[in-house]
Design goal:
Helix content: 10-25%
Strand content: 25-35%
CATH topology of the domain at 37-108: Alpha-Beta Plaits
Shape: elongated
Radius of gyration: 26 Å
Low-confidence stretches: 154-159
Structural class: alpha+beta
Order of helices and strands: EHEEHEEEE
Domain Elongation Factor G: 32-104
Protein name: Putative elongation factor G, III-V domain-containing protein
Number of strands: 7
Number of helices: 2
CATH class of the domain at 37-108: Alpha Beta
Largest sheet: 5 strands, antiparallel
Mean pLDDT: 83
InterPro entries: EFG_II, EFG_III, EFG_III/V
Keywords: Elongation factor, GTP-binding, Nucleotide-binding, Protein biosynthesis
CATH architecture of the domain at 37-108: 2-Layer Sandwich
Organism: Medicago truncatula (Barrel medic)
CATH superfamily of the domain at 37-108: Elongation Factor G (Translational Gtpase), domain 3
């Protein structure tokens, strides 16, 4: 079995297997990084809207770790593996597709939350140097999730 890299293919996407149709051979599917950051993006002019859409579709086909979607307010949202990844996407839109875009502030796609009730007790003793008294602080801390529904070790994908 030989493994090669091909460039310039028009009807394939990253991760697909090419082989002889007589003896199909499929490699295991590739795992791509999770989208951890998102930003809203819009073209600076209405004339750039179609070019931006075409560019984002093309870039998403080339890069499985990049995703494009619309939010509830009908804004275009791009998601990637980090800020640098999305900066590169916006730069490629400008260079390759001649699209000037306004970009929103980056937002994390996941949020950490408390998954179980935790209780901690700490007693602090500090003796005074010049007199016989001791300062004592006894603290109890109980933390629990405010949300009733969550999944342990999962990502939150809300917009």
């Amino acid at each position: 079995m030989d493994i090669v890299t091909l460039v310039g293919l028009k009807d394939t996407i990253a991760g697909e297997t090419l082989c002889d149709p007589k003896g199909p051979f499929v490699l295991d599917q590739m795992d791509f990084p999770v989208h951890v950051i998102k930003i809203a993006i819009e073209p600076k002019t209405k004339a750039d809207m179609e070019k931006m859409e075409a560019g984002l579709i093309k870039l998403a086909e080339e890069d499985p770790s990049f995703r494009v979607s619309q939010d509830k307010e009908d804004r275009t949202i791009i998601q990637g593996t980090g800020e640098l990844h999305l900066e590169t996407i916006v730069d490629r839109l400008k260079r390759e597709f001649k699209v000037e875009a306004n970009v929103g502030a980056p937002q994390a796609n996941y949020r950490e939350s408390i998954s179980e009730v935790t209780e901690v007790r700490y007693v602090f003793n500090k003796p005074y140097i010049l007199n016989p008294w001791t300062q004592v602080v006894d603290t109890n801390l109980r933390i629990k999730s405010k949300k009733k529904h969550f999944q342990k070790n999962s990502l939150y994908w809300g917009f």
